[in-house]
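Q: I have 437 residues here and want to know how they pack in 3D. Can you give me a structure?
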Amino acid sequence: MKTVALIGRPNVGKSTLFNRILHLQQNIMDDQPGVTRDRISALCQWHDRAFILIDTGGWSDDSDEDLTKQVTKQIERAFEQAEIFLLVVDGSLELTALDEMLASVVRTYSKPVALIVNKSDLKRTRQNLHDCYKLGFDPVIPVSATHGEGIEDIFDFLRTYIQPQTSPVVRVECSFAVLGRPNVGKSTFVNCLLGDERITVHDAPGTTRDPIDTHFQWYGHSLSLIDTAGIRRQARQEDRIERWSSQKALQSLARSDFALLIMDAVDGITDGDLKVAQYIAEAYKPAMIIMNKWDLIEQQTQYARTVRADIRERMHFLAYAPLVLVSAQSGLRMSLVLSKAWSIFSKLPVSVNVQKLNLVLKDALRKHPPPRRNNRAIDVGPISMVSGSPPIFLIKCSDPGRLEPSYQRYLHRLIVAQTGITQLPIRLVFKTKARKR
């Protein structure tokens, strides 16, 4: 499958164009230059053509800042990986020295190039559009990514180099959302799993801003990893980009099939970790707790023992999620992550003998009936299974609002023990039982 890369200097509208082509607002769009920092790829289907579209960070010749070097390295990897370039310039401004410098770099690769003149809906772009022909690329395609003008012309260009798809597009079997608070090593973790520096890694918190979907093959299975921005409590979010990044991370959790919670072993469990863990539990996602940087504390036996106990106690609501102690930097136990995660995910959908479960429930209610409220008994049962992925059980109850949370937890433990579903989230839904006439 062909790969198409969007390239350009910062703030020319690459992410807006990326979203317009995909018909999906996946990336963060903002007037602040440099919002996109990583290579972000997505499968694009256009009629009978399919290709991988890559959005890149803004190309810059500023080599003084370490983070800029990292972003430039990602763009250079996109240059090597892509077979077709869409070079984007800002039609509302005159060509800059950076535009011309980047054009010179693109020519050295001898690959098909279309010059995309964005923001061409503005009247002042007419003269600038004429000047763009001086760069020597053919075709020159004026577009407005914001309003969707000229997008068909881009596809007409791509059609020349992309053959019709004869075989069905491979669909992802499981998508893993990589979540955690800022600077716990999520991007290093993803890069280690993939064996490729797809994601910008830097010591500064907040380096990753967009959710980054990376598709890959693992022992014949088509999987994807979604690296997300660090999630902090709203009170500690510093600007609108960080708030937007956190919202996108939670949206990535919602659309994922499995959550990988990354924590920093040196810091232990923080309030920020607990908040992210609660988001995962509330989404009822299969999950795994990854304690990263374990190589830094592995020799501290007592501290390591304390960290394990702390997880069991403070993250009791994620009791179903196994704990894996890794180091993404050294590769310690990283080979276990996907194998353990897949072994859990492959158990879905779950099948349960509901008739037997109701017999167990009836016996449990006889031995331990729910506490009475205002001297009135609460009738519970029967139970039915409404979903196997994730496991959701519907329990009829005469008055769900009066059923004590402690008794709901008792029923939850009963179902876990009876069904043997220990590594998946189980959701109980209580519904008012119709009154007998």
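Q: Anything worth noting?
A: Residues 174-345 form a domain with the Rossmann fold fold (CATH 3.40.50.300). The longest strand covers residues 380-388.
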